[in-house]
Please model this.
Amino acid sequence: MTATRTRTDAGLSTALRISVSRLARRLRAQRAVSGMTEAVLSETQLAALSALEVHHAMTPGELAEHEKVQPPSMTRVIAVLTERNLVLKSPHPTDRRQVVLTVTAEGRAVVQRVRRRKDAWLAQRLAELTEAERATLRAAVPILEKLSQSLPVAPQDAVSASRSRARSGQLASEEYRGCSLACSRLRTRCTRSAVQDAPW
Model:
């Protein structure tokens, strides 16, 4: 993306979405090793496992809140992780309605293997940047973390907001085309989700 296209908030959001998505795909490619447990886990499952590895013990509700997903979705994630002996369920010490989730030795090994591979790849890429570029990234890390912890926007609200900005002339024509395409895809996902009655 050029500097001109990122001067507006809409242009920045488009550029950031594309860049973050591409980087995430490159990092995901580093974790998949044929025959290893991590190769068959989804990104959501691996993220939940990583969160438990860092926090040591969490309830399903705490884990769902941390990962910003709905509790029913997290229940399915936990079921897969426990079935693969990556996460252990234990009775809650004070609340019989709750359980406590902890990572097993195998689960911790999975997280550490993936983390080492991703860190090694990213460290090599960072070494190719200038010191000024690395300094910029260091300053951006807290901002990216803040964005990652933001609450999700309702899909219809996002579509309506994009249309409203376009009608009011706040988006340049090129940015609007990109936003319109994203909205169309979002509507498709919403329709598919409603038909299948599954979260996305």
Observations:
- The first strand starts at residue 57 and ends at 58.
- Residues 173-196 form the longest helix (24 residues).
